[in-house]
Design a protein that fits this description.
mainly alpha, 2 domains, two-stranded antiparallel ribbon, 50% helix, 2% strand, elongated
């Protein structure tokens, strides 16, 4: 009887050891499977064939892996900037006027781009009371000062292109033609604040004064 009881007492322990062993084996299988899964999922770009700088090549006839540029191509950042359109300058000085005609479509484009990129700091009226200065950034000058009313258009182009003071460059965000469109709209803002009735065409002056068009 005692031997039978001892045998019965051993069976649960044997089953427990066997279950623990199975769990360890299963964990080991999962670990190995996970390892091979991670190895097999490496990005192929990490192991793609490539040449190191100045490494020789037996593919090209001249034996060089570095290839000459295709004639007529320009590397990014190496395009020479010359002329009033892309620099805003005539010689070494800020130019005045515009490199293309200012139409109603250009003005509409300038207003749209101004409201997107400029008004957060300069305000929609150009007085420097935008939302960002109200949150602590340095306030930009008003466009309606004598200094900026008398500034050449090339000055505004240079500031947008290269930055000035606390203002960073917007050359990446705003293409060349859009910079000129914004300048045209800035001039319209300045004129709207400081213009007189004599600045209007005769027909519009007559309408405002109550006369016949």
């Amino acid at each position: 009887m005692s031997r039978g009881r001892k045998t019965r007492n051993q069976k649960p322990e044997t089953r427990s050891v066997s279950a623990a062993h199975r769990r360890r084996v299963l964990a080991l299988i999962l670990l190995v499977s996970g390892f091979w899964f991670l190895v097999s999922c490496r990005q192929k770009m990490a192991v793609q064939p490539k040449y190191d700088p100045l490494e020789p090549s037996d593919f090209f006839a001249d034996g060089m892996s570095a290839r000459p540029r295709i004639p007529g191509t320009v590397a990014r950042g190496e395009l020479p900037l010359e002329g009033f359109l892309v620099t805003g300058k005539i010689g070494n000085d800020d130019g005045d006027g515009y490199p293309f005609p200012i139409t109603a479509a250009v003005m509409d484009r300038g207003q749209e781009r101004f409201n997107i990129y400029c008004s957060p700091c300069h305000g929609r009226g150009g007085d420097g009371n935008g939302m960002i200065p109200s949150r602590g950034l340095r306030r930009p000058p008003s466009y309606h000062t004598d200094a900026l009313r008398n500034a050449k258009t090339g000055h505004f182009f240079d500031v947008m292109t290269n930055g000035f003071g606390a203002m960073p460059s917007y050359a990446v965000q705003v293409p060349v033609n859009d910079r000129w469109a914004i300048i045209a709209y800035i001039r319209a803002l300045q004129l709207s604040r400081n213009g007189t009735i004599n600045d209007l065409p005769p027909a519009q002056r007559a309408q405002l004064s109550g006369g016949a068009p």
